[in-house]
Amino acid sequence: MLVFIAVMAGSGYYIYTQALSGGKYIIVPKITDMPVMEASKKLFEVGLELGPYIPVTHDTIPKYYVISQKPEAGKVVRLGRKVFPVVSAGPPNEKVPDLRGKTLEEAQKMIEFNSRFKLGNIARINRDEPAETVISQDPPPDTDATQGTFINLLISAGTQTETIIMPNIVGKNIQEVEELLKPYDIKLVPNIVDSPNSPENIVIEQDPPADTPIVRGQMVVYTIKSTGTAPLPDARYQTEVTYTMNDDWAAKEVRVELVDRHGNREILWHKPRLYDTLSQIRYVRGTPLNIKVTYISKAVVEIFVDEVKVASFELEGGNPPKLLQP
């Protein structure tokens, strides 16, 4: 009897192994904790098929990553069988808070209190609303947004009633421009360019253009080819910051911020986590991140990967960017 059982067991094992080696059956591979596109490819390579998946929200597992599978990894199934995954749809959406009418400080605290959102860009315009009050926001209040969404704010800079007509300063030298606009407390910002055919220390372009209304204290940018002999206290410079990624970064959140000379922050570029095939090909290890930057006098550019600062660049006086933090 024992011999018979042993023979039958041996025969069963033989049939099992022969069935596997014959290609009619296959062991289901593990496809959890990987992007759904990668999971589909892995199943196809062993003769299985990805079935329709069930999307569910998840606070920690990235969007489009497989949470679980059925049949489970290690099960033996026929070739061509479908494997049905449960796939993360990312964090659940949440309503954007209404920040209108709040002070900037109050709005910042509300955003920081709700850790799902982040403070984005801040812009100011002259309005009748009290200074430093939120006028509008993007995304709008009560819209659905995912975790990590940046909320951009438009802030009132207070009332400015006195307006003047912007004079034509093109063709004038710096001293003439300063004398012409001095009575109006205009903030002059030079934009230095290297233009071989342009005269030196003479205004080439201006913004705002001539004959447009401006207010007292407004910023006026003028373009000039400088010899370096004339003083330009608030010169505007343009440069490009380049940083090479050390890892594949399609599935990473990347943010580049500019910190101006007064400590104000501005988001220059932002990439959310991406899981599509094209992004997996594009954002690979060794590819450079090139960011064009315009700044006044001096600034710092900071690069964050998944909320961790990986590099800082010092910008000053039109000199090449200086790496502060590798």
Helix % is 10-25%
Strand content: 35-45%
Instruction: Give a quick account of the main beta sheet: strands, pairing sense, barrel closure.
Output: 5 strands, antiparallel
The CATH class label of the largest domain is Mainly Beta
Question: What's the short story on this structure?
Answer:
The chain has 326 residues and is an alpha+beta fold.
Structural write-up:
17% of the residues lie in helices and 38% in strands. It is an alpha+beta fold and 326 residues long. It has 4 domains: 22-88, Trypsin Inhibitor V, Chain A (2-Layer Sandwich), CATH 3.30.10; 98-159, Trypsin Inhibitor V, Chain A (2-Layer Sandwich), CATH 3.30.10.20; 163-234, 2-Layer Sandwich (Trypsin Inhibitor V, Chain A); 238-326, Immunoglobulin-like (Sandwich). The protein has a 5-stranded antiparallel sheet, with no helix packed on it. Strand 22 (308-316) and strand 23 (322-325) form a beta hairpin. Mean pLDDT is 84; it is low at 1-21.
What attributes does this structure have?
single chain, 326 residues, alpha+beta, Trypsin Inhibitor V, Chain A, 4 domains, 4-stranded mixed sheet, 38% strand
Give the topology:
Layout: H1 2-21, E1 25-27, H2 36-45, E2 49-50, E3 54-56, E4 66-70, E5 76-78, E6 82-88, E7 94-95, H3 104-113, E8 117-125, E9 134-138, E10 144-145, E11 149-156, E12 163-165, H4 174-181, E13 187-192, E14 203-207, E15 213-215, E16 219-224, E17 236-244, E18 254-260, E19 265-271, H5 277-282, E20 288-296, E21 298-305, E22 308-316, E23 322-325
Parallel strand pairs: 2-6, 3-6, 8-11, 13-16
Antiparallel strand pairs: 1-5, 4-6, 7-10, 9-11, 12-15, 14-16, 17-20, 18-19, 18-21, 21-22, 22-23
